[in-house]
Amino acid sequence: MGDQPLSPAALGILAERLGPLPLINHFLSRMGLLEVLEQHVPTADGRSTVSHAQALGVLLRSIIVEREPIYRQQESTTGFAPGLFGLDAAQAERLSDDRIGRALDRLFDADRAALLTEVVLAVAQRFGVRLQQLHNDSTSISLCGQYRQARGRRVRARSAPAITYGYSKDLRPDLKQLLFILTTDADGGVPVHFRCADGNTTDVRTHIETWNTLRALAGRADFLYVADSKLCSFDNMRHIAGAGGRFVTVMPRSRQEDAQFRKWIQLNSPAWELVWDRPNAREADGPRDLWYVYKPELPSAELYGIVWVWSTLLSLHQTHRRQKHLAAATEQLTGLKRRLASARARLRGAAQIDLQVAQILERYSVGRYLKVARVVREEHSFKQARRGRPGPDTAYRKITRRRYDIEWTMDEAAIAYDKRSDGMYPLLCNDRSLTPAQVLTAHKGQPRIEKRFEQLKTVHEIAPVFLKNEARIEALFTLYFLALLVQALIERELRQAMKAANIEHLPLYPEARACRRPTTEHILRLFSLAERVSVLNGAAVIRVFPPELTELQHQVLGLLGVPPSAYIDKT
After folding, report:
1. CA neighbor of 442 nearest in space, from 243, 250, 178, 278
2. What spatial distance separates the first Cα and last Cα of the chain, rounded to whole Å?
3. Which residues are CB-contacts of 224 (< 8 A; sequence separation ≥ 6)?
4. What is the number of other CB atoms lying within 10 angstroms of the CB of residue 202?
5. Listed residue (444, 424, 462, 78) closest to 268, CA to CA
6. Are 306 and 299 in contact (CB under 8 A)?
7. Tally of CB atoms within 10 A around 499
8. Residue 149 CA to chain centroid, in angstroms?
9. Using alpha carbons only, how large is the chain's radius of gyration in Å?
10. H-helix or E-strand containing 507?
């Protein structure tokens, strides 16, 4: 444009949002995820302006950054600089919820097991995820609606999940649901496996299939498989141990070994070994957090090793909860007793009263400690046998009325019996080479998977799902798994880099407060306002001003291995 003068009237400014998308695209490229989507979800129709993989890539980025419903994806891409969502301006105009819906259909039809296996293996190789200790758990995803056709039918030659009622871990038994089964690696809580199951599926039935998939994924059987008490069934443990696998699980209270130890401990003192002695995480002046382990000589009925764990804070918590429940149940029983004594009491039938008592005891789980008895009270009154003024010889007849009442006693012996083993629970492990402390350490990594579920439901807001087709819902869940994977890798990379650089904290909290364990949410928020500004002469771009990154942003990018050119590049 050299010698041509610029007209002020023709000049314009274009602000384009970058946000955290350059950082996310760096990790997507490093994972090779978009190429895998193109390979496993090809677009057969050459007339399509936007390929299936591109549409899925848009939705995946949106889940991580914007969290907008499917019908608002075009609006989400409009405010960002072209290309950051993997689409140019012309393709972004052709993006619609119907286009994304068809891409979800093709994702459901694809061999998703092979797709996810290839992605996870690439992540293991490129990010050093070793697949040595894997944690499994599941959560229910509640859905609003009837979904009358979603009964496990066949959709285009594939079985779709049944959306139905089941045990709601969200405490919403009034809603139908699906089961989201997730396995994460102990190293950073990186998701490595996902499966969607029918809403009424119990966890007991999912472990064998999950473990077989993980064995094929890891290429070996000697990884340590950690799960909750649903793994502790004869079939599950026999299958894993028989195939050369290792596991750690929680032994349920229903097992006889549990009852035997709690009876034995009434008169005996185990040789507890102190594993952790830590300050109270919630109260600065509170009691210390002490964890002990004890391994009895007698193994389980299956000849697996038992490790008993005792937490002092858990002991205090269970004691306090018992007292709280006893006080609440006593108050409820007192109110019921008052109602029965009322002149207008409507609970006159024995069955009604017994039901009310049973509901109170079950609600507060105190049936073992409160012994409630239904009794009959007799109330006597006298009335003249005949009318008239009463005199010395007046005859009276006795009228007896019977009313129901309740009485209860506190079983102090049962309370003392259970208090003796408060804060204790048994772990079961078939690897005899692991010390009790190592078994406890493996088990204590289980709450990390709960953090992934929390992110799934709160940060990413997976429920409610604005889809009616159960096949598309299962495909959408696959994208949520991939979003969790990207998020976990970003978080893991930053924490590992901080540890290697001896950086204890970063000022990522509001008001630049110190953050010792940054999450991906903090990182994305740090770059949420990044934008570049272009000066236009008509339709021509004459200059581009990249975002002025702060020192903290440069530091985070350096720790994550993201080159500054991801934000400064003018193209």
Report:
1. 250
2. 19
3. 132, 133, 134, 246, 247, 248, 431, 442
4. 12
5. 424
6. yes
7. 10
8. 27
9. 32
10. strand 506-509
> Do residues 349 and 395 touch, judged by C-beta distance below 8 A?
no
Residues forming a β-bridge with 92: none
Q: Which residues contact 48 (CB under 8 A, 6 or more apart)?
A: none
Position of tokens 């384009």?
16
How far is residue 211 from each of residues 90, 119, 183, 215, 246, measured CA to CA in Å? 45, 18, 10, 6, 10
DSSP designation for 81: P
Three-state helix/strand/coil letters over 354-366 = HHHHHHHHHHHCC
Q: Please report the beta strands in 256-395, taking only residues with DSSP state E, as ranges in sequence order.
A: 273-278, 289-294, 305-311, 370-384
Is the CB of residue 58 less than 8 Å from the CB of residue 68? no
State how far the Cα of 465 lies from the Cα of 178, in Å rounded to an integer: 11
Pairs from 542-547 (Cβ < 8 Å, separation ≥ 24): 542/1, 542/6, 544/570, 546/570, 547/18
3-state secondary structure of 546: coil
Q: Which residue has the tokens 């009442």?
A: 405
The DSSP secondary-structure symbol of 255 reads S
Residue 151 and residue 188 in contact, taking contact as beta carbons nearer than 8 Å: no
- Contact between 206 and 239 under an 8 Å Cβ cutoff? The reply is no
Is-cis flag, bond preceding 464, omega within 30?
yes
- DSSP-based helix, strand, coil % in the chain, nearest 5: 45, 20, 35
Distance CA 476, CA 474 (A): 5
| pLDDT tens profile 419-476 | 999 999 999 999 999 999 999 999 999 988 988 988 888 877 786 677 889 999 999 9
264-305: per-residue pLDDT in tens? Answer: 999 999 999 999 999 988 888 889 999 999 999 999 999 999
Length of the chain: 571
Containing 248, the helix (H) or strand (E) segment is strand 246-250
Secondary structure class of 316 (helix, strand, coil):
helix
Contact 335, 341 (CB under 8 A): no
b/e for 63-82, b at 16 or more Cβ within 10 A? bbbbeeebeebbebbeebbe
Task: Compute the average pLDDT of residues 35-54.
Answer: 90
Q: Give the strand pairing for 224-226 and 246-250.
A: parallel
Three-class secondary structure of residue 549 per DSSP: coil
| Contact in structure between 65 and 19 (CB atoms under 8 Å) | yes
Res. 208: pLDDT tops 60: yes
| Residue 76: per-residue pLDDT | 78
**266 Cβ partners below 8 Å, 6+ apart?**
417, 420
